[in-house]
TrEMBL record:
Chief subcellular location: cytoplasm
Residues reported in the UniProt entry to bind ATP: G78, Q79, T80, G81, S82, G83, K84, T85
Protein source organism: Pandion haliaetus (Osprey)
Alphabetically ordered keywords of this record: ATP-binding, Cytoplasm, Cytoskeleton, Microtubule, Motor protein, Nucleotide-binding
Sequence similarity: Belongs to the TRAFAC class myosin-kinesin ATPase superfamily. Kinesin family.
Superkingdom of origin organism: Eukaryota
An individual GO BP term: spindle elongation
A GO cellular component entry from the record: microtubule associated complex
Entry-linked InterPro entries: Kinesin-like_fam, Kinesin_motor_CS, Kinesin_motor_dom, Kinesin_motor_dom_sf, P-loop_NTPase
Family annotation (Pfam families): Kinesin (PF00225)
Designated name of the protein: Kinesin-like protein
Gene (UniProt): Kif12
Record-linked SMART domains: KISc
Amino acid sequence: IRVRPLTCTETRRGDQRVVHSLGDGTVHVSAARHDATFGFSAVFDAGASQEAVFEGSGMRQLVELAIAGFSCTVFAFGQTGSGKTYTLMGPLTQSESRPAAPGLLGLMQRSFACLLEQSRSHGSDMALSASYLEIYNEQVRDLLSSGPPCALPLRWSKTCGFYVENQLSVDFESLEAITDLLLRGAEPWVQGWGHAEARSGGARAQTQGLGHCCGPQGRGGGQSITPPMLIPQPSTCPSKQGTLCFVDLAGSERVKETGSSGELSVEANNINRSLLALGHCISLLAKPRGKRMHIPYRDSKLTRLLARSLGGSGITLMVACISPSSHCLSETLSTLHYASRARRVTTRP
Protein backbone atom coordinates (compact mmCIF):
# COMPACT_ATOMS: atom_id res chain seq x y z
CA ILE A 1 0.00 0.00 0.00
CA ARG A 2 1.24 3.51 -0.78
CA VAL A 3 -0.37 6.51 0.93
CA ARG A 4 0.20 9.80 -0.87
CA PRO A 5 0.50 13.16 0.96
CA LEU A 6 -2.46 15.51 1.28
CA THR A 7 -2.56 17.91 -1.67
CA CYS A 8 -2.64 21.70 -1.33
CA THR A 9 -6.27 21.69 -2.47
CA GLU A 10 -7.22 19.16 0.20
CA THR A 11 -5.39 21.12 2.89
CA ARG A 12 -7.07 24.40 1.89
CA ARG A 13 -10.43 22.65 1.85
CA GLY A 14 -9.86 21.49 5.42
CA ASP A 15 -9.84 17.77 4.70
CA GLN A 16 -8.85 15.59 7.64
CA ARG A 17 -6.17 12.89 7.42
CA VAL A 18 -8.04 9.62 8.05
CA VAL A 19 -5.36 7.08 7.02
CA HIS A 20 -2.41 6.31 9.29
CA SER A 21 0.40 3.78 8.98
CA LEU A 22 0.94 1.81 12.20
CA GLY A 23 4.14 0.11 11.05
CA ASP A 24 4.74 -3.58 10.34
CA GLY A 25 2.61 -3.44 7.20
CA THR A 26 -0.52 -2.22 9.02
CA VAL A 27 -2.70 0.71 7.98
CA HIS A 28 -5.52 2.20 10.09
CA VAL A 29 -8.53 4.12 8.77
CA SER A 30 -10.18 6.29 11.40
CA ALA A 31 -13.20 8.49 10.60
CA ALA A 32 -16.78 9.02 11.70
CA ARG A 33 -18.57 5.64 11.60
CA HIS A 34 -15.43 4.04 10.15
CA ASP A 35 -12.67 2.42 12.18
CA ALA A 36 -10.77 -0.33 10.41
CA THR A 37 -7.29 -1.83 10.36
CA PHE A 38 -5.77 -3.65 7.38
CA GLY A 39 -2.59 -5.72 7.11
CA PHE A 40 -0.38 -5.90 4.02
CA SER A 41 3.13 -6.95 3.00
CA ALA A 42 4.31 -3.33 3.31
CA VAL A 43 2.81 0.13 3.81
CA PHE A 44 4.58 3.26 2.55
CA ASP A 45 3.41 6.47 4.20
CA ALA A 46 3.40 9.95 2.67
CA GLY A 47 7.08 10.54 3.48
CA ALA A 48 8.36 7.40 1.72
CA SER A 49 10.78 8.06 -1.14
CA GLN A 50 10.65 6.39 -4.55
CA GLU A 51 13.82 4.49 -3.63
CA ALA A 52 12.19 3.23 -0.40
CA VAL A 53 9.20 1.93 -2.36
CA PHE A 54 11.49 0.19 -4.87
CA GLU A 55 13.53 -1.56 -2.19
CA GLY A 56 10.73 -2.20 0.33
CA SER A 57 8.18 -3.61 -2.12
CA GLY A 58 10.43 -6.45 -3.29
CA MET A 59 10.78 -4.93 -6.75
CA ARG A 60 14.50 -5.72 -6.95
CA GLN A 61 13.82 -9.40 -6.24
CA LEU A 62 11.11 -9.37 -8.92
CA VAL A 63 13.66 -8.13 -11.48
CA GLU A 64 16.01 -10.95 -10.50
CA LEU A 65 13.20 -13.51 -10.87
CA ALA A 66 12.39 -12.18 -14.35
CA ILE A 67 16.03 -12.61 -15.31
CA ALA A 68 15.86 -16.17 -13.96
CA GLY A 69 13.10 -16.91 -16.49
CA PHE A 70 9.87 -16.21 -14.60
CA SER A 71 6.87 -14.23 -15.83
CA CYS A 72 6.63 -11.24 -13.45
CA THR A 73 4.01 -8.48 -13.30
CA VAL A 74 3.61 -5.24 -11.36
CA PHE A 75 0.33 -3.38 -11.44
CA ALA A 76 -0.76 -0.17 -9.73
CA PHE A 77 -4.38 0.17 -8.59
CA GLY A 78 -6.37 3.01 -7.01
CA GLN A 79 -8.54 6.01 -7.75
CA THR A 80 -7.45 8.81 -10.08
CA GLY A 81 -4.92 11.10 -8.41
CA SER A 82 -3.81 8.55 -5.80
CA GLY A 83 -0.27 8.31 -7.18
CA LYS A 84 -0.34 5.23 -9.43
CA THR A 85 1.48 6.73 -12.41
CA TYR A 86 3.91 8.63 -10.17
CA THR A 87 4.79 5.38 -8.38
CA LEU A 88 5.40 3.53 -11.65
CA MET A 89 6.90 6.29 -13.84
CA GLY A 90 7.71 9.32 -11.69
CA PRO A 91 6.47 12.86 -12.48
CA LEU A 92 4.24 13.29 -15.53
CA THR A 93 6.00 16.58 -16.33
CA GLN A 94 9.18 14.80 -17.40
CA SER A 95 10.11 14.71 -21.08
CA GLU A 96 13.14 13.90 -23.24
CA SER A 97 14.30 17.52 -22.92
CA ARG A 98 13.43 17.74 -19.23
CA PRO A 99 14.14 14.42 -17.50
CA ALA A 100 13.01 13.75 -13.95
CA ALA A 101 15.44 14.12 -11.06
CA PRO A 102 17.05 10.76 -10.18
CA GLY A 103 15.35 10.66 -6.78
CA LEU A 104 11.90 10.93 -8.38
CA LEU A 105 12.25 8.06 -10.85
CA GLY A 106 9.55 5.41 -10.53
CA LEU A 107 9.57 1.63 -10.26
CA MET A 108 9.86 1.21 -14.02
CA GLN A 109 13.02 3.27 -14.58
CA ARG A 110 14.66 1.78 -11.48
CA SER A 111 13.80 -1.73 -12.66
CA PHE A 112 15.20 -0.98 -16.13
CA ALA A 113 18.44 0.26 -14.55
CA CYS A 114 18.62 -2.95 -12.52
CA LEU A 115 17.94 -5.05 -15.64
CA LEU A 116 20.67 -3.27 -17.60
CA GLU A 117 23.14 -3.73 -14.76
CA GLN A 118 22.43 -7.46 -14.76
CA SER A 119 22.61 -7.52 -18.57
CA ARG A 120 26.12 -6.05 -18.53
CA SER A 121 27.23 -8.71 -16.06
CA HIS A 122 25.81 -11.44 -18.32
CA GLY A 123 27.57 -9.98 -21.36
CA SER A 124 26.34 -11.25 -24.73
CA ASP A 125 24.33 -14.06 -23.08
CA MET A 126 21.43 -11.73 -22.35
CA ALA A 127 19.33 -9.51 -24.62
CA LEU A 128 16.53 -7.09 -23.70
CA SER A 129 13.51 -5.89 -25.66
CA ALA A 130 10.39 -3.93 -24.73
CA SER A 131 6.85 -3.36 -25.92
CA TYR A 132 4.22 -0.80 -24.86
CA LEU A 133 0.45 -1.32 -25.06
CA GLU A 134 -2.72 0.54 -24.16
CA ILE A 135 -6.19 -0.91 -23.64
CA TYR A 136 -8.53 1.89 -24.67
CA ASN A 137 -12.30 1.30 -24.88
CA GLU A 138 -11.63 -2.45 -24.95
CA GLN A 139 -9.23 -2.08 -27.88
CA VAL A 140 -5.58 -3.08 -27.57
CA ARG A 141 -3.30 -0.52 -29.22
CA ASP A 142 0.45 -0.44 -29.71
CA LEU A 143 1.94 2.79 -28.33
CA LEU A 144 5.27 2.26 -30.11
CA SER A 145 3.95 1.86 -33.64
CA SER A 146 4.24 4.79 -36.04
CA GLY A 147 1.16 6.28 -37.65
CA PRO A 148 -2.38 6.42 -36.27
CA PRO A 149 -3.14 3.86 -33.55
CA CYS A 150 -4.97 0.77 -34.72
CA ALA A 151 -6.55 -2.05 -32.75
CA LEU A 152 -4.54 -5.26 -32.49
CA PRO A 153 -6.20 -8.67 -32.09
CA LEU A 154 -5.78 -10.84 -29.01
CA ARG A 155 -4.91 -14.47 -29.74
CA TRP A 156 -4.61 -17.63 -27.67
CA SER A 157 -2.04 -20.39 -27.90
CA LYS A 158 -1.35 -23.37 -25.68
CA THR A 159 2.28 -22.37 -25.17
CA CYS A 160 1.88 -18.59 -24.66
CA GLY A 161 -1.67 -18.21 -23.37
CA PHE A 162 -3.22 -14.89 -24.45
CA TYR A 163 -0.95 -12.66 -26.52
CA VAL A 164 -1.22 -9.59 -28.76
CA GLU A 165 -0.74 -10.33 -32.44
CA ASN A 166 1.66 -8.09 -34.40
CA GLN A 167 2.83 -6.32 -31.27
CA LEU A 168 5.98 -4.29 -31.86
CA SER A 169 9.00 -5.11 -29.68
CA VAL A 170 12.10 -2.93 -29.62
CA ASP A 171 15.58 -3.90 -28.47
CA PHE A 172 17.29 -1.60 -25.98
CA GLU A 173 20.76 -1.49 -24.47
CA SER A 174 20.73 1.70 -22.36
CA LEU A 175 18.56 3.44 -19.78
CA GLU A 176 18.26 6.48 -22.07
CA ALA A 177 16.90 4.31 -24.91
CA ILE A 178 14.21 2.62 -22.80
CA THR A 179 13.27 5.92 -21.11
CA ASP A 180 12.81 7.53 -24.52
CA LEU A 181 10.53 4.64 -25.54
CA LEU A 182 8.57 5.06 -22.32
CA LEU A 183 8.07 8.80 -22.79
CA ARG A 184 7.25 8.41 -26.48
CA GLY A 185 4.57 5.85 -25.73
CA ALA A 186 3.14 7.85 -22.81
CA GLU A 187 2.84 11.11 -24.76
CA PRO A 188 -0.59 10.51 -26.37
CA TRP A 189 -2.47 9.73 -23.17
CA VAL A 190 -0.66 12.40 -21.12
CA GLN A 191 -1.80 15.01 -23.67
CA GLY A 192 -5.31 13.56 -23.80
CA TRP A 193 -6.31 13.79 -20.12
CA GLY A 194 -9.79 15.17 -19.38
CA HIS A 195 -11.39 16.12 -16.08
CA ALA A 196 -10.23 12.92 -14.45
CA GLU A 197 -8.47 10.52 -16.79
CA ALA A 198 -9.42 10.92 -20.39
CA ARG A 199 -7.26 8.20 -21.87
CA SER A 200 -7.73 5.06 -19.85
CA GLY A 201 -9.40 1.87 -20.78
CA GLY A 202 -8.92 -0.64 -17.99
CA ALA A 203 -5.17 -0.54 -18.35
CA ARG A 204 -3.92 2.78 -19.55
CA ALA A 205 -0.45 1.57 -20.36
CA GLN A 206 1.11 -1.83 -20.19
CA THR A 207 4.86 -1.91 -20.62
CA GLN A 208 6.62 -5.22 -20.93
CA GLY A 209 10.32 -5.96 -20.91
CA LEU A 210 11.45 -9.28 -22.33
CA GLY A 211 14.76 -10.68 -21.21
CA HIS A 212 16.26 -13.53 -23.24
CA CYS A 213 19.04 -15.26 -21.33
CA CYS A 214 21.38 -17.87 -22.69
CA GLY A 215 23.68 -19.81 -20.43
CA PRO A 216 24.64 -23.27 -19.14
CA GLN A 217 21.88 -23.23 -16.49
CA GLY A 218 19.25 -22.06 -19.00
CA ARG A 219 16.12 -24.22 -19.04
CA GLY A 220 12.62 -23.33 -20.16
CA GLY A 221 11.37 -20.60 -17.83
CA GLY A 222 8.18 -18.54 -17.72
CA GLN A 223 6.64 -17.72 -21.08
CA SER A 224 5.90 -14.21 -22.31
CA ILE A 225 2.47 -13.06 -23.47
CA THR A 226 4.16 -12.35 -26.79
CA PRO A 227 5.71 -15.23 -28.72
CA PRO A 228 9.52 -15.50 -28.40
CA MET A 229 11.08 -13.49 -31.20
CA LEU A 230 13.77 -11.01 -32.17
CA ILE A 231 16.67 -12.74 -30.44
CA PRO A 232 18.00 -15.81 -32.26
CA GLN A 233 19.69 -18.23 -29.87
CA PRO A 234 22.46 -20.69 -30.75
CA SER A 235 20.97 -24.14 -31.14
CA THR A 236 23.69 -25.69 -28.99
CA CYS A 237 22.85 -23.48 -26.01
CA PRO A 238 19.73 -23.98 -23.89
CA SER A 239 17.88 -20.70 -23.34
CA LYS A 240 15.24 -19.19 -21.10
CA GLN A 241 13.01 -16.17 -21.42
CA GLY A 242 11.54 -14.07 -18.62
CA THR A 243 9.17 -11.12 -18.71
CA LEU A 244 8.66 -8.09 -16.51
CA CYS A 245 5.31 -6.44 -17.18
CA PHE A 246 4.13 -3.10 -15.71
CA VAL A 247 0.41 -2.23 -15.75
CA ASP A 248 -0.91 1.24 -14.92
CA LEU A 249 -4.60 0.58 -14.27
CA ALA A 250 -7.27 3.19 -14.88
CA GLY A 251 -8.77 5.11 -11.96
CA SER A 252 -11.13 2.95 -9.90
CA GLU A 253 -13.60 5.69 -8.89
CA ARG A 254 -17.30 5.64 -9.80
CA VAL A 255 -18.36 7.24 -13.09
CA LYS A 256 -20.18 10.11 -11.36
CA GLU A 257 -16.91 11.09 -9.65
CA THR A 258 -15.05 11.53 -12.96
CA GLY A 259 -17.17 14.43 -14.22
CA SER A 260 -17.27 12.70 -17.61
CA SER A 261 -20.04 13.13 -20.15
CA GLY A 262 -20.75 12.03 -23.71
CA GLU A 263 -17.89 10.03 -25.22
CA LEU A 264 -15.84 10.21 -22.01
CA SER A 265 -18.80 8.83 -20.05
CA VAL A 266 -18.97 5.84 -22.42
CA GLU A 267 -15.24 5.33 -21.91
CA ALA A 268 -15.58 5.59 -18.12
CA ASN A 269 -18.25 2.89 -18.22
CA ASN A 270 -15.90 0.68 -20.27
CA ILE A 271 -13.20 1.26 -17.65
CA ASN A 272 -15.56 0.28 -14.85
CA ARG A 273 -16.61 -2.91 -16.67
CA SER A 274 -12.97 -3.79 -17.22
CA LEU A 275 -12.03 -3.19 -13.57
CA LEU A 276 -15.16 -5.03 -12.42
CA ALA A 277 -14.07 -8.06 -14.45
CA LEU A 278 -10.62 -7.81 -12.84
CA GLY A 279 -12.18 -7.57 -9.36
CA HIS A 280 -14.42 -10.56 -10.06
CA CYS A 281 -11.42 -12.67 -11.10
CA ILE A 282 -9.49 -11.63 -7.99
CA SER A 283 -12.44 -12.46 -5.70
CA LEU A 284 -12.74 -15.95 -7.18
CA LEU A 285 -8.98 -16.54 -7.11
CA ALA A 286 -8.90 -15.53 -3.42
CA LYS A 287 -11.14 -18.49 -2.52
CA PRO A 288 -9.53 -21.76 -1.39
CA ARG A 289 -8.57 -23.88 -4.40
CA GLY A 290 -11.16 -26.55 -3.57
CA LYS A 291 -14.01 -24.01 -3.62
CA ARG A 292 -13.07 -22.18 -6.82
CA MET A 293 -15.33 -22.15 -9.81
CA HIS A 294 -14.43 -21.17 -13.37
CA ILE A 295 -12.30 -17.97 -13.45
CA PRO A 296 -13.81 -15.69 -16.16
CA TYR A 297 -10.60 -14.29 -17.65
CA ARG A 298 -12.34 -13.86 -21.02
CA ASP A 299 -14.75 -11.25 -19.65
CA SER A 300 -12.39 -8.42 -20.66
CA LYS A 301 -9.20 -7.93 -22.64
CA LEU A 302 -7.49 -6.67 -19.49
CA THR A 303 -8.14 -9.91 -17.59
CA ARG A 304 -7.13 -11.99 -20.60
CA LEU A 305 -3.73 -10.29 -20.72
CA LEU A 306 -3.35 -10.55 -16.93
CA ALA A 307 -4.53 -14.17 -16.68
CA ARG A 308 -1.07 -15.61 -16.05
CA SER A 309 -0.15 -12.77 -13.68
CA LEU A 310 -3.27 -13.18 -11.53
CA GLY A 311 -3.64 -16.87 -10.98
CA GLY A 312 -1.35 -18.90 -13.15
CA SER A 313 2.38 -19.45 -13.34
CA GLY A 314 3.50 -15.86 -12.79
CA ILE A 315 4.70 -13.76 -9.86
CA THR A 316 2.77 -10.54 -9.24
CA LEU A 317 3.25 -7.40 -7.16
CA MET A 318 0.22 -5.16 -6.62
CA VAL A 319 0.82 -1.58 -5.49
CA ALA A 320 -2.46 -0.15 -4.18
CA CYS A 321 -2.31 3.65 -4.01
CA ILE A 322 -4.65 5.57 -1.69
CA SER A 323 -5.34 9.12 -0.54
CA PRO A 324 -5.32 9.93 3.20
CA SER A 325 -8.03 12.61 2.75
CA SER A 326 -11.44 12.33 4.44
CA HIS A 327 -12.93 13.52 1.12
CA CYS A 328 -11.69 10.27 -0.55
CA LEU A 329 -12.71 7.96 2.32
CA SER A 330 -15.16 5.85 0.30
CA GLU A 331 -12.70 5.14 -2.54
CA THR A 332 -9.85 4.55 -0.08
CA LEU A 333 -11.84 1.90 1.80
CA SER A 334 -12.86 0.31 -1.51
CA THR A 335 -9.22 0.13 -2.62
CA LEU A 336 -8.09 -1.36 0.72
CA HIS A 337 -10.79 -4.06 0.61
CA TYR A 338 -9.86 -4.79 -3.02
CA ALA A 339 -6.18 -5.12 -2.11
CA SER A 340 -7.02 -7.36 0.85
CA ARG A 341 -8.77 -9.77 -1.52
CA ALA A 342 -5.86 -9.65 -3.96
CA ARG A 343 -3.45 -10.51 -1.14
CA ARG A 344 -5.21 -13.85 -0.59
CA VAL A 345 -4.53 -14.96 -4.19
CA THR A 346 -1.77 -17.56 -4.46
CA THR A 347 0.06 -18.57 -7.62
CA ARG A 348 2.39 -21.43 -8.47
CA PRO A 349 5.31 -19.87 -10.36
